[in-house]
Write a structure and sequence with these properties.
The protein is α/β, with parallel strands linked by helices. It is built from 14 helices and 19 strands. Strands 12-13-16-17-11-18-10-19 form an eight-stranded mixed β-sheet. The site of zinc ion (ZN) has 4 residues, from loops.
């Protein structure tokens, strides 16, 4: 038995000015790894592709890994990048195989295709009409018809923060291996509802997604091979952004349909709970100070979430609005992760550790998609640390995977320690801080450019959390996004019965 195992992951924020060339799909730049290098990069990690490799090895299959390509979210994927990745995967399928296992995202938009995953699957189907294709998708997938039609089995993450990527790979992979072994006949039902759940309301610690995902696991316990609710990714101005569900059963299409409709109907009934109320920044800052003033000695930090500029949702990670408010308010004992500003890092490297300097920090990237200009802020401080920015996640999210912040420096204003990085990395792992010599649990305040994923590795440290509405292409204000292509009517953009 020969299996093609591959990865092509990108969540596309169509408003993001951050380009998405092929080099973004490889840790440290260059070409995404292939073959033995791809296996070495992912085997034993908490990823879906690692689960595929384990299952295929255990089944004694010959495993071909044409490419493992994963990029931090950003603007539409450049055509050359998509053609390279899809081309590698299609060439491997064309060489002949018994099954295909794909670790995809589900919300990839390319310069040419609103449904990047659907285009990949369409091309694979054109080469191998009958080969079973198992697909693992992120919970933020915006599901199009093509993806659902051409995949044999789809399984999605059931946690946000995404701490079950590996388990998702096992669900998708097992169903395909059971099909190949004649032990199962997977059949799939899927559907959508016209609703755009807000990312800040999608966490699976919170209702209603907690209950929706729990119901998926109940359905699996009751015999479904896989049940998934995709809450969708709303910072994408494409026709089929929004919520969807997929249920796979063993040769029982009626049960798959019934389960799928139940999930969709429940999500629709709970749609008001997916709407996010934005708190004005001034009020958030005052609340954070009050929380810090009342916190017991020895307790963890008050976490300030700069959620409008999260690089794991396509943010530039260089807007200075929330950090500016922290500096203006004179907050003391603050750790900030992070500001993306490669030029500022270079200036600090030239100045050297211990040097005092003043620089125009952040705000280098304009955001024409939401009509905003980048606004740097002059910040003075001492260079506290310089490092290469590489660290491995400790988990629980993306456990064991390598991160590359690029050349990294810490600027210390005396009150605020600001991590400044050259590649996008979202702080969801304690190792992001330990890599730069900061113990966040000892700080009075920690500012994170994150929305929900920070909870994976850092929530247990926090005394309290304050969600701070800054500026950026992950804006919580749907009006700022001025949707042109999302299908209408759409809740909550339009009043729907
Ligand atoms: Zn996601």
């Amino acid at each position: 038995m020969k299996l093609v195992v591959a990865q092509m992951k990108h969540e596309t924020n169509t408003y993001s000015p951050v380009p998405t060339p092929l080099a973004r799909f490889a840790v440290g730049g260059g070409l995404p790894p292939e073959g033995a290098a791809a296996r070495a990069a992912y085997q034993g990690t908490g990823s879906a592709i690692a689960a595929f490799i384990e299952l295929a090895d255990a089944a004694g299959a010959e495993v071909v890994i044409p490419i493992a390509a994963s990029a931090w979210p950003s603007g539409p994927v450049e055509t050359a990048a998509f053609e390279h990745i899809a081309g590698r995967i299609c060439a491997a399928v064309a060489a002949g195989c018994d099954g295909v296992l794909l670790d995809l995202h589900g919300a990839m938009v390319t310069e040419a295709h609103d449904d990047g995953e659907g285009e990949l699957l369409r091309r694979i189907r054109a080469i191998a009409a009958d080969v079973p294709i198992g697909v693992a998708l992120d919970m933020h997938a915006n599901l199009y018809d093509g993806c659902a039609r051409d995949a044999t089995v789809i399984a999605g993450y059931q946690t946000y923060p995404h701490v079950d990527m590996h388990e998702t790979g096992l669900r998708a992979g097992r169903a395909v291996l059971d099909l190949l072994a004649g032990r199962a006949r997977p059949t799939m039902a899927w559907g959508r509802r016209p609703m755009l759940p807000h990312v800040m309301r999608q966490g699976t610690d919170d209702s209603p997604n907690r209950e929706l995902q729990a119901r998926c696991r109940e359905m699996e316990a009751a015999g479904a091979l896989s049940a998934s609710v995709f809450v969708g990714f709303p910072n994408a101005d494409i026709e089929y952004a929004g919520l969807s569900a997929v249920v796979v059963t063993d040769a029982d299409p009626a049960l798959a349909r019934r389960f799928c409709d139940e999930l969709l109907d429940t999500a629709w009934a709970e749609r008001a709970k997916f709407v996010y109320e934005v708190e004005p920044l001034a009020r958030s800052m005052a609340r954070a100070q009050a929380l810090a003033g009342a916190k017991p000695a020895g307790s963890g930090p008050v976490v300030l979430l700069d959620h409008s500029d999260n690089c794991a949702s396509g943010g530039t990670m260089d807007t200075m609005t929330v950090l500016g408010a922290i500096l203006d308010a004179g907050l003391d004992d603050v750790a900030v992760f992070a500001i993306f500003d490669p030029a500022a890092v270079q200036r600090m490297i030239e100045a050297g550790v211990g040097a005092q300097l003043s620089l125009a920090l952040g705000g280098k990237l304009d955001m024409p998609g939401i009509g905003l200009r980048g606004q740097p802020r002059e910040v003075a401080g001492r260079v506290r640390l310089i490092c290469d920015g590489r660290f491995r996640n400790r988990g629980p999210m993306a456990r064991g995977e390598l991160n590359d912040m690029g050349p990294t420096a810490v600027l210390d204003t005396g009150k605020v320690q600001i991590v400044v990085i050259s590649n996008h990395v979202e702080p969801h792992d304690l190792a992001a801080f330990t890599a730069v010599g900061i113990a966040p649990e000892t700080r009075r305040f920690v500012m994170l450019k994150s929305r929900i994923h920070w909870r994976a590795g850092l929530r247990p440290l926090a005394h309290a959390v304050v969600e701070c509405a800054g500026t950026g292409v992950c804006t919580s204000d749907y009006a700022t996004l001025r949707f042109k292509n999302v299908r209408r009517p759409m809740y909550p953009l339009d009043a729907l019965p």
